[in-house]
Known about the structure:
- The complex is a heterodimer of chains A (278) and B (594).
- Chain A has 278 residues and is α/β, with parallel strands linked by helices.
- Chain A is 38% helix and 25% strand.
- Chain A folds into two domains: 2-151, Rossmann fold (3-Layer(aba) Sandwich), CATH 3.40.50; 153-276, Hypothetical Protein Tm841, Chain: A,domain 3.
- Chain A contains ten helices and 13 strands.
- In chain A, the strands form three sheets. A six-stranded mixed sheet of chain A has the order 10-9-8-13-11-12, sandwiched between helices. In chain A, strands 2-1-6-7 form a four-stranded parallel sheet, sandwiched between helices. Chain A has a three-stranded antiparallel sheet with strand order 4-3-5, covered by helices on one side.
- Chain B is α/β, with parallel strands linked by helices and 594 residues long.
- Chain B folds into four domains: 23-52 and 60-229, Serine Threonine Protein Phosphatase 5, Tetratricopeptide repeat (Alpha Horseshoe), CATH 1.25.40.340; 264-365, 2-Layer Sandwich (Alpha-Beta Plaits), CATH 3.30.70; 369-488, Rossmann fold (3-Layer(aba) Sandwich); 494-593.
- In chain B, the strands form four sheets. Chain B has a six-stranded mixed sheet.
- Chain B is globular and about 75 Å long.
- Chain B starts with 12 loop residues before the first helix and ends with a strand.
- The interface between A and B is medium-sized, with 18 and 18 residues.
Amino acid sequence: MIHLVTDSTSDIALADAEALGVHVVPLIVRFGEEQYRDGVDIDADQFYTKLEQTTVHPTTSQPSPDVFATLYRTLLADPADQVVGLHISAKLSGTLQSATLAAQDFDQSRIHLVDTESVSGGLQLLVRAALDDIKAGDSAEVVAEKATLRRSKVTILVLLDNLIYLHRGGRIGRAQAFVGGLLNVKPLIAVRDGEVVPVARPRSRSKGIELIVEQVRSCAPLRGLAEFHAAAAESMTDLETRIGAAVSNVTAVLGRIGPVVGAYSGPGGLGVACLGAD
Amino acid sequence: MRRLTVSATKPAPELAVLREPLREIAGEQILAGLTAALSWLEANQQEINDLNVFPVPDGDTGSNMYLTLRSAVEEARDAPAPSAADSVLAAAAHGSLMGARGNSGVILSQILRGFAQGAAQCTNLDARGVALAITEASAVAYRAVMKPTEGTILTVVRDAAAAAAAAAETTDDIRVVLERVVTEAHAAVERTTDQLQVLRDANVVDAGGFGLAVILEGFARAIGDTHPATPAPALLRRSGEPALRLPPNPGDLEATGSAVPRRGAAAVAPREQGWGYCTEFLLNGPGLDVDAIRTELAALGESALVVGDPELVRVHIHTGDPAGLIAAASSRGRMSKLKVEDMSAQHHDVLERADAREAHAEAEGTAPPEQPHAPPKAIGIASVAPGEGFREIMGSLGADSIVSGGQTMNPSIEDLLNGVRAVNAEHVILLPNNGNVILTAEQVDPLAEDCEVRVVPTRNLPQGISALLAFDPASSLDENAARMLAAIATVHAVEVTHAVRDTSVNGHDIKTGDVLAVVDDEIAEVGNDYLGVIDAVLNAQSAKPELVTVYRGDEVNAGDADTLVATLREKHPGTEFELQLGGQEHYPYVLSLE
């Protein structure tokens, strides 16, 4: 049997993960001394509420190799089983590093780790596509290979309220170019080749959504579509409606930006991920 | 309605008959002619300014033409071969090009360029030569304008050229040719009123055309007359009241009354690393390799201007090491007219003369620091901005270099060229941010030797901000230009000011001091207070704007602006308002509607 492992930055809902049989390793989010396992000890609602109430800036950290080792030991108990691990971009997190360290204690041919160069909805779409491949009977090696090829077909766009969280969190990448502007803008960023890149500086949320819809349309034909928000339910409804009107033949995965990713997007973030057809 | 009439005093024809015919003119006479033209233009500068149709404070045609011609005369005085007509004219053409500001200034520089081209290889000009040169001047000027409009300076130069050509068929006396030219130029100026609707409505003649007629007249008088043209009696009589040009606020007379655009140094913000020495000299040949000299000397400083021919090269360069530069240059040829000036001291002088608030802002170093020795980046932006606030905002949004200027102080081509060089990039996007700066900006590319310059024709500050926001350093020049063009199409600009004269435009009866809202270059609302006209503009929008950014000018205090914006928020729920300090002069409020 092939076990699919991902991490909590895929923002996959716990119920979905269970239903799909995906193993989710939580990253850690910290408010000063307090620390929580992403999605286990704290959910999105609790996180954004906390974010509003505290002056402490949240930080995050990768799961320890132990966590991966423990999971791998369980999953590989049956000598016929294998693991495919799809994880957040190594340029954004050390999660894959921990997984790789843990995997060293196992037979290398039984654990196939992939740097998806992606995050959140994008990572989740790759996970879902890999599940299809497993279902179709591909070997673990082929599932990992396909996921690696597929990552170039992922587009992730996030409309932010501001760049404060991304900047403080040290994940700003080339969107640094957008920092320091004296006018209020809603920065639109993308994750490209595993890194944050600047896309546009619309002056209003509505213009930003318009830009997202344009980009989504240009990605068609789509294999998968995901729409995510960080405490921005109203904008999310607007986004859903406008994307729904622009693209058809694909059912969108809807969800929340979870605590760890939310620590970088900040509240108000609105994201879309598309996966182009193979 | 008053009608401004222009009547040139025609020199008595018999005088010309009595004198010996003037069959040739050389460099000295041309310089004298140009100098007289400059004096005559200066004497009529205000009158030309007052012909501006639009009743808003903007770049004045008379001032722009005067500053352009002054730059021409200054360079003509240093012509390498003072006796040669072609040498003097080529120098004047180059000087006018570098000093050109405003649309009228750019066209004037093209007229001088054409005149110089028509006189190329001629040490002396005869009557036919003069006619040929004016004809070429007309042709070059027409080519410089993408959509030539009749009833402007172009019509005047063309009609003058036709008169010159006809006259040269019948006489070899240059005086007679020039007399006909001047007579026809003034007649053409008179006709402009009926050729352009805006002129007809305001019942005035075209300011640029009139300016050219004045220049031709001054030139002709110096050539034809032994008496200097300068302190002439009132040559031009106007019926009706003297033109009024009141400033928006009493007590603000100096700022507005004679809004002479700032030149050169005052128009460029200082740099953190200091200015070094402005070093100027001539290198005398023969056998100078201009390109090699340019390459060698440009490496020793910045803003290098190395122009000339194998006989004479003119060098203007900013360097931290004038001694090294002089040593390098003197090995190339004999040096003369050496001038070395400490630019930080010089700049301070200029700034002290400049508006105090602005000087303060500039000394704070609001312009992005320049790194002359860093390798050039692939693509950068130079942007024109008035006022400390706009400079800061544009810098914060990624403009690499800011050229001071705008409505009332149109930057010269040289100012823009220096701004483009300060970007230090292989490709530079130049944002003029003013309708009267676009044509000037378009002249910069051929002059910028080390980089490709693309003008994105932003007509106002809100468009400039939108263009900056659309910039993507990772995209190509073409892609960025396209992005910016798309972005500026989505923003409407509202410029709020006071009428500087009584007039009637677009069916609005306007009295001096009225509050005007200019929406996308058209006068849209006239009223008594800022709130009223802005509110009216917002109500008139067919689609309610999502976001209105209000930039307050330097004469509006923060409290008043807060109150205005708070009232607008109440009146226009559903629209977001953002207040920023623009710091622009003469325009209490500039708004962008998106």
